[in-house]
Amino acid sequence: MLGLEYLIYHERDLTKINKYLSNHPKILENKNIDGNNILMNLIKLYISLDENATDELEYLYNVIIQINNKFSEIIKADIDTYLNIIRDSEIPLKQHITKLINLLNGSYYVTLEELEEKYNISFNFSDDVVNAIYCFYTSSLERKDFTYQNVITIDDELTECMDDAIYLEKNKNGTYTLYVHIIDISAIVPYDSKVFNTAKKREESLYLLDRNIPMYPNYIGNDLCSLNMNHKKNVITLIVPVDNDFNIIEDKFSIVKGKIKIKKRLTYKEADDIIFNNNLGAISRMLENLYKISLKRRATNKSKELYREYEKIIVNKKHHASTKTNISAAANIVQEMMVLLNYLIATYFKENFYPFIYRNVSLPNTKEQRKQIKIYKKLSGNKIAVDKFLNRLRECYQEGQYISTPTYHNGLGFPCYSHISSPARRFADSFCEYLIHEFIFNNQIDDRNIYIWEERIKKLVPYLNERKRENELFIKEYNYLAAKKLIRKK
After folding, report:
1. What's the pLDDT at 1?
2. CB distance 184 to 234 below 8 Å
3. What's the CA gap between 425 and 199, in Å, rounded?
4. Is residue 255 a contact partner of residue 345, using CB atoms and an 8 Å limit?
């Protein structure tokens, strides 16, 4: 009890409060010497405040929402006890008190506008952002022409924003050349433009229960900057040699500006069918060889496989190819190619001492990870025990964060790592493309320019991490409200 009170009244951290509530399913059974539980005391404090104390009212209301979300059935069974606190107080029913009564009664509704204000999120794009898009200019000059390649995309059937593509070329001497193409957002969206800053504010595309909120307007994400079939598109291309045993030669890669035309769009299922049905066509042979490369990469990086298994248990990432790797050969290809891209480009910036945005993750050692996975599997038949165990793990687990210095990624087992592979869906990836242009393609490597970009990154990194945390809280509340049908139009 004291632990929760300390979090509420002293630390005032909603994320920590939420984790504490998850780990203490009987918290409302605990009473103080007056016979009140934590929710009763919060209600008394909340209704006693003046309606002008807006910040404190909003904070306490959010705490009460969290308790109500976790224990709604328990509260509903004893609702008169909680409502009598308000009735017996004889305090006039001001707006914030009526709002609380509606919440406890289950007749509480939230508008999209209220959620936008609370989380500083916009469900729609302003007219000036949408109109700005039509002034953008893109050029294919000074780009390597890869439009002759049988380039493919592999993604979910309903995906409209496709930002990565792959091609594997067989050389005359029996070796291969791998091409990983990423849509070049930075060649279309001007740096520091309204569209750029709107994407920065959002930080990422948000996948909600009944809708998605894209990072860029659909005309960019699903058209200009989507690798749609039979359209020439500007890309940033990673070129990597592969030996005749399907091993990647990591120290001989290059990064170039390119242009491509997608020849085939495949779903994971379609790609899997092609791989395993022994079709002798060119795309079939290419997919089979890409799969062999991915299996080699996977087999030689046990650290990554353990990390992916551990991460999938703790954080359910529904919109990530890694969730399909145990059942789909195509998902293995996509994951390994994107991990390779993120790792090698981060390596280039690290070795040349150029400013960049890197990734880091805090994990227990591999021995402890295996131990925790073993416990999880042993408990798998007991939902209550599993939930309690996972909530305890989540308190200690820190999901990946952006950092400004290259650091060993102890999940993937790489000396450094970054995000570049989803520039239409993550702002950090978009931003890294501007850095690729600045330091690789434009060769702007004088000390003054390096200093300018270092300062920009130092300011951006903490913002991205904080915005990510706010997005997660928003997604959780929105999905809860949407599932309960508690969202309405204003």
Report:
1. 45
2. yes
3. 9
4. yes
Q: Determine the pLDDT at residue 316.
A: 62
Q: How many CB atoms lie within 10 A of CB 118?
A: 15
DSSP state of 262: B
Q: Which residue has 């229960």 as its token pair?
A: 209
Longest CA–CA span in the chain (Å) reads 88
Handedness of CA 217, 218, 222, 223 (dihedral sign): negative
H/E run at residue 127: helix 127-133
Residues in the chain where the model's pLDDT stays below 50: 1
DSSP-based three-state secondary structure for 280? coil
What is the structure's pLDDT at 489? 64
Do the bridges between strand 176-183 and strand 232-242 make them parallel or antiparallel, or are there none, so unpaired? antiparallel
Q: Domain-by-domain residue ranges, the chain?
A: 2-108, 119-488
Output the pLDDT for position 318.
Answer: 53
Q: Which residue carries 């551990």 as its tokens? A: 310
According to the model, what pLDDT value does residue 223 have? 82
Residue 488, H or E segment: strand 487-488
74-83 long-range contacts, CB within 8 A, separation 24+: 74/28, 75/28, 75/39, 75/104, 76/106, 79/104, 79/105, 81/40, 82/39, 82/40, 82/43
Please name the amino acid found at residue 363.
Answer: L
DSSP state of 134: T
Taking the C-alpha atoms of residue 253 and residue 71, their distance in angstroms, rounded to an integer, is: 54
Structure tokens at 428: 């950090």
pTM value is: 0.79
SS3 342: helix
Query: For position 108, what pLDDT does the model report?
Result: 65
